[in-house]
């Protein structure tokens, strides 16, 4: 049927005997019976005969004004203020018995200026994406007020580029080795060892750092340059946009007030923030651990050179590799963690390491609890405390 103005014009011509029923029906694309019915209505009602039957009526499925105001009041609560429209819709249905469509909720919030700001994403969605899971793992770190309490924390994470699956998340007081290590541990335990790793980082360098040594040791290969994967880095930024929009509100809703509780909840949210893309290939390049010791793989590592007695220095302290093999002038890899203690990889084997101490005023001084001191200084081992952390080469 034609629009209202055209119908009105043709029927008025018919009423003035300036056209026939057949011509009117042909011009309007309707039957002669409908044209006669419109003519009779026009004779009785005038121009209002062409109005739709529901014109001026309140929609039968319109939201009650009281319920609309309740939705607005709930959205203004601190616990809900930073939730995305979709997450807020789920909360309304599950916890408040309000069942409306997403489009209706979005229109209500938009009219009140309550929709969260969204950053422009731009660029093709899946260009340059890895073809197989495990082919490329992306590490990232982002500082923000994740607990929504005025503080500053750093979210560390890992995501598989091929599938968009988030494989690790860890919240720390600052960007640190331990945060990345926990995300890598979650990835290795649940999925396996990736073939390649790149990083979108705040400040910690992946190349030429103990973290880079750990990653290279896990993969058994060199680390590719992150700049060679611009599309993957863009996808990390897109993921962080989604997480920034939803995570603070979710943690506040769960009444999370400290890092320890946050890190217990984060693994449950992997699926929530995952992009869920079907990889181009069904094959996975994640490698199983196959008996490899994850605690050893994820220990903090630093290359050192030992003397003839297996001694080397690190952080102003002297250490000794407990090995019967002569070690003079030979490179070793010093590594430590809470799980493995102080160890060194030398001559294709791992050996215990003991701290000799430091020279002060012509005498040897051995600090107390050296492993704990090193863990706190270089790894931020206590994830719920704000301690000095390693942020690059020293």
Protein described:
Helix content is 36%, strand content 18%. The protein has 13 helices and 11 strands. The strands form 2 sheets. Strands 5, 6, 7, 8, 9, 10 and 11 form a 7-stranded antiparallel beta sheet that branches. A hairpin with an 8-residue loop joins β1 (137-144) and β2. α1 (4-15) runs antiparallel to α2 and α2 crosses α3. Residues 381-394 have low confidence and may be disordered.
Instruction: Tell me roughly what share of residues is in helical segments.
Output: 25-40%
CATH topology of the largest domain: Nucleotidyltransferase, domain 5
Q: Describe the biggest sheet?
A: 7 strands, antiparallel
| SS element count, helices | 13
Q: Name the helix and strand elements from N-terminus to C-terminus, one letter apiece.
A: HHHHHHEEEHEHHHHHEEEEEEEH
Taking pLDDT < 50 over at least 5 consecutive residues as the criterion, the unreliable ranges are: 381-394
* Oligomer status: single chain
CATH level 1 name of the largest domain = Alpha Beta
Q: Give the C-alpha Rg.
A: 33 Å
Keywords:
single chain, 394 residues, alpha+beta, Nucleotidyltransferase, domain 5, 4 domains, 7-stranded antiparallel sheet, 4-stranded mixed sheet, elongated, disordered C terminus
SSE layout and pairing:
Elements: H1 4-15, H2 21-28, H3 32-45, H4 65-75, H5 85-96, H6 102-111, E1 137-144, E2 153-160, E3 166-172, H7 177-190, E4 197-200, H8 210-219, H9 230-253, H10 259-265, H11 270-273, H12 294-297, E5 300-306, E6 311-314, E7 317-321, E8 330-337, E9 341-346, E10 349-360, E11 363-365, H13 370-379
Parallel strand pairs: 1-4
Antiparallel strand pairs: 1-2, 2-3, 5-8, 6-7, 7-10, 8-9, 9-10, 10-11
Helix pairs in contact: 1-2, 1-3, 2-3
């Amino acid at each position: 049927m034609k629009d209202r103005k055209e119908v009105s014009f043709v029927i008025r011509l018919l009423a003035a005997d300036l056209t026939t029923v057949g011509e009117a029906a042909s011009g309007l694309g309707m039957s002669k019976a409908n044209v006669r019915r419109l003519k009779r209505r026009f004779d009785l009602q005038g121009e209002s005969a062409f109005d739709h039957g529901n014109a001026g009526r309140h929609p039968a499925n319109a939201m009650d004004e009281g319920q609309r105001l309740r939705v607005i009041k709930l959205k203004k609560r601190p616990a809900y203020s930073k939730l995305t429209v979709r997450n807020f819709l789920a909360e309304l249905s599950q916890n408040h018995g309000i069942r409306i469509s997403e489009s209706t909720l979005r229109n209500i919030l938009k009219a009140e200026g309550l929709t969260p700001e969204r950053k422009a994403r731009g660029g093709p969605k899946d260009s340059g994406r890895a073809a197989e899971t495990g082919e490329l793992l992306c590490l990232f770190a982002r500082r923000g007020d994740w607990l929504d309490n005025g503080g500053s924390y750093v979210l560390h994470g890992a995501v598989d580029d091929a599938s968009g699956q988030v494989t690790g998340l860890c919240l720390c007081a600052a960007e640190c080795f331990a945060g990345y290590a926990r995300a890598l541990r979650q990835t290795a335990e649940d999925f396996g060892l990736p073939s390649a790793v790149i990083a979108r980082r705040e400040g910690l360098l992946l190349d030429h750092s103990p973290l880079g040594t750990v990653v290279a040791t896990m993969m058994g290969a060199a680390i590719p340059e992150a700049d060679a994967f611009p599309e993957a880095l863009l996808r990390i930024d897109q993921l962080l946009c989604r997480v920034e929009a939803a995570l603070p509100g979710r943690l506040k809703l769960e009444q999370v007030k400290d890092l320890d509780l946050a890190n217990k909840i984060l693994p449950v949210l992997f699926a929530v923030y995952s992009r869920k893309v079907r990889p181009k290939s069904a094959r996975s390049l994640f490698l199983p651990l196959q008996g490899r010791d994850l605690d050893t793989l994820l220990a903090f590592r630093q290359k050192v050179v030992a003397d003839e007695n297996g001694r080397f220095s690190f952080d102003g302290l002297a250490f000794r590799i407990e090995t019967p093999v002569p070690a003079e002038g030979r490179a070793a890899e010093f590594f430590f963690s809470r799980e493995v203690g102080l160890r060194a990889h030398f001559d294709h084997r791992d050996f215990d390491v003991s701290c000799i101490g430091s020279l002060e005023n012509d005498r040897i001084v051995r600090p107390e609890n050296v492993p704990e001191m090193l863990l706190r200084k270089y790894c931020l081992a206590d994830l719920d405390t704000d301690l000095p952390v390693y942020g690059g080469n020293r």
